[in-house]
Amino acid sequence: MDLWSRFRDGLKRTREHVGQALESVLLRGGAPDAAARQQLEDALLAADVGPATAERLIALAEERMRRARDLDLRGALERTAAEMLTLPSAPLEPVAGSAGAGPWVLLVVGVNGSGKTTLAGKLAAHFARQGRRTLLVAADTFRAAAPEQLEVWATRAGVEMVGAREGGDPAAVVHDGLEAAKARGVEIVLVDTAGRLHTRHNLMAELGKIGRVCGRLVPGAPHHVLLVLDATIGQNGLAQAREFQRAIAVTSLAVNKLDGTARGGIVLAIADQLRLPISVLGVGEGLDDWVSFDATTFARALFE
């Protein structure tokens, strides 16, 4: 399946939700009148774009239509949304020629049930297929059977794994994992951290400790902190992301379960309100059910 088809399928429920409400509005040649504007805003709110982002999106689209008289509302919204989603971001992989004294380290963080372990396994498989020696570190020592779950993914991905017993110190597991990676000549280390509620300040502080351990063992690590959010929770994702940003320097976002919700507009809200780039979208449970984020393709699929 090509990239466009995967984005389109992943946003099917959201697009249907928005499209049904806007069928009579989106092909207008001129700016929407008051009634059409309200209809547009209501549909965007229903897709969890959020009031501030919806207002900004509509205003910028209207301004774009004033500058380009031949542009319809759908086209103006697509182009404006793509601009809002286009943010400077670090690549989700080692940069060629940047290898230092150790592996490239990715921390996968997020709340319970957001799909971190599954995504870590998918990314590990992706890197392994590129011929890069990859190690998964099971730093989730709180959830029962979490290391076993990651081990299943490690087997499917064809990569090595370092884990610990339930109840161990996560920072110590990360320490052991990075030492093993350095000794084995591993190129990429993916650290699957425990899911933690963003309101549990002691657990959030632990992320900072894990980050410091990474930096002591590998200069510049963690090189990327990927915050995984569940698209089905909608606007609650904003609160989660803000708290994780306070605990550790988040590099980019992965938005999971996009295919199972009509709230796909939350992706736009997160980019606009938090100025955090999105690097990955999860669109299913299979090993290959994820896509690298593309702002133009996402905006087109949202309003198509």
Structure description:
The protein has 304 residues and is of the alpha/beta class. Helix content is 49%, strand content 14%. The mean pLDDT is 86.
Write the layout of secondary structure elements.
Blueprint: H1 3-10, H2 12-22, H3 34-46, H4 51-67, H5 73-85, E1 104-110, H6 116-129, E2 134-139, H7 146-157, E3 160-162, H8 170-184, E4 188-193, H9 201-217, E5 224-230, H10 236-247, E6 252-256, H11 266-274, E7 278-282, E8 290-292, H12 295-303
Parallel strand pairs: 1-4, 1-5, 2-3, 2-4, 5-6, 6-7
Antiparallel strand pairs: 7-8
Helix pairs in contact: 1-12, 2-3, 3-4, 4-5, 5-12, 6-7, 8-9, 10-11
The run of helices and strands is: HHHHHEHEHEHEHEHEHEEH
Structural class: alpha/beta
Q: End-to-end distance, in Å?
A: 18 Å
Shape: elongated
Query: Main β-sheet, in a few words?
Result: 8 strands, mixed
How many alpha or pi helices?
Answer: 12
* Average predicted local confidence, pLDDT: 86
Report the β-strand fraction as a percent range: 5-15%
Total strands: 8
Q: Helicity, in percent? A: 40-55%
Strand order of the largest sheet: 3-2-4-1-5-6-7-8
> Which residues sit in consecutive blocks of at least 5 with pLDDT less than 50?
none
What is the CA-based Rg, rounded? 20 Å
What is the structure about, briefly put?
The protein has 304 residues and is α/β, with parallel strands linked by helices.
Write a concise keyword list for the protein shown above.
304 residues; 49% helix; 14% strand; 8 strands; 8-stranded mixed β-sheet
